[in-house]
Amino acid sequence: MNHELDKTRIPAHIAIIMDGNGRWAAKRGLERSYGHQAGVETVRRITAACTKLGVKYLTLYTFSTENWNRPSDEISALMGLVLSSLEDEIFMKNDVRFRVIGDIARLPADVQKKLHETEEHTKDNATMTMVVALSYSSRWEITKAVQDIVTDVKAGKTSEQAICEDMVSKYLQTAFMPDPDLLIRTGGEVRVSNYLLWQIAYSELYFCDTFWPDFAEEDLYRAIANYQSRQRRFGKTEQQIEDQNKLANNSTR
C-alpha cells in the first residue's frame, strides 16, 4: 500500500496511543511484560517506516500519569524496558532525534539519566524527531502551563493581557514541535485517554482494532491513506477549502 500513498501529503506529525500490549500477551497466556517487549519491536519497525515516508515528528504515548496506579511489578518491568530499549541503533541508524515529554521527575533516577543521555547523544539527528510521552498526561501538562504562566505574570515577565492561545502553546511540553496532523490509537478502544488534549484540537483521529505488537507497516500506511482521504477544514466550510485550493493551484501555474 506504500506506493499508493500521496507522498506530497504525508502527515508531518503522527501521534500514536500504543494500546493493546497487555491484551496481546494475555491472549497468548503470557505475562503482560511480554506484550510490552513485543511492543518495542513494533516501535522499531514503525520508526523506520515513518522516516522513510518523510514524517518529521512521531510522538508515542508510552506511560501515562495514570499508569502509576498499575501493579508495582508491571511498573518496574516497564521502567526496565525503557532503559533497555533506548538503544543507539534505532536512532542513529535512522537519523532520529530523541525527545521526552512528561513529569520526568517522578521516574527512577537511572531512567532519568538514560533519557537525558539519549536526548544529548541524538540532538544533531535531523531526519525525524521521536517524542516519547513518559509519565505524561494532558491535564497535568495544561495545569503546569497555567501555573508557569501565573508565576511569570507575578514576576513581571509577562502580563495577563498577553495571555492567548499562542502563549499557552509555548508553555506546553510540546512547544518545540507542531501539533499532530494524525492521531492513531491501536487496540480497539475509541478514546484519547488524556493524551495531547490541547494539541489534537484539529488532528485527524484514526482508531483500529489491531493490538500494538501486531501493528505493521501496512497498518501505518492504511492509517495514512485514511488521513489522506479526508478534507481538513479547520472550522471552515467545504466550499471555502475548495476555493482556497483552487486559488493556490492557480497561483502556482
Largest sheet: 6 strands, parallel
Structural class based on helices, strands and sheet pairing: alpha/beta
Q: What's the order of the H and E elements?
A: EHHEHHEHEHHEEHH
Find the count of extended strands (DSSP E, 2+ residues): 6
Strand order of the largest sheet: 3-4-2-1-5-6
What is the name of the CATH superfamily of the largest domain?
Decaprenyl diphosphate synthase-like
Which terms summarize this structure?
253 residues; alpha/beta; Undecaprenyl pyrophosphate synthetase; 2 domains; six-stranded parallel β-sheet; 9 helices; 6 strands; 44% helix; 14% strand; UPP_synth-like_CS
Structure report:
With 253 residues, the protein is of the alpha/beta class. It has two domains: 13-136 and 179-251, Undecaprenyl pyrophosphate synthetase, CATH 3.40.1180.10; 138-172, no CATH class. The protein has nine helices and six strands; from the N terminus they run E-H-H-E-H-H-E-H-E-H-H-E-E-H-H. The protein has a six-stranded parallel β-sheet, sandwiched between helices. Strand 3 (96-101), helix 5 and strand 4 (128-136) form a beta-alpha-beta unit. The radius of gyration is 19 Å and the shape is globular.
Can you lay out the helices and strands and say which pair or pack?
Blueprint lengths: L12 E5 L3 H7 L4 H22 L3 E8 L7 H14 L2 H5 L3 E6 L7 H13 L6 E9 L1 H17 L10 H7 L10 E4 L18 E4 L9 H12 L9 H14 L2
Enzyme class: transferase
Function: Catalyzes the condensation of isopentenyl diphosphate (IPP) with allylic pyrophosphates generating different type of terpenoids.
Cofactor: Mg(2+)
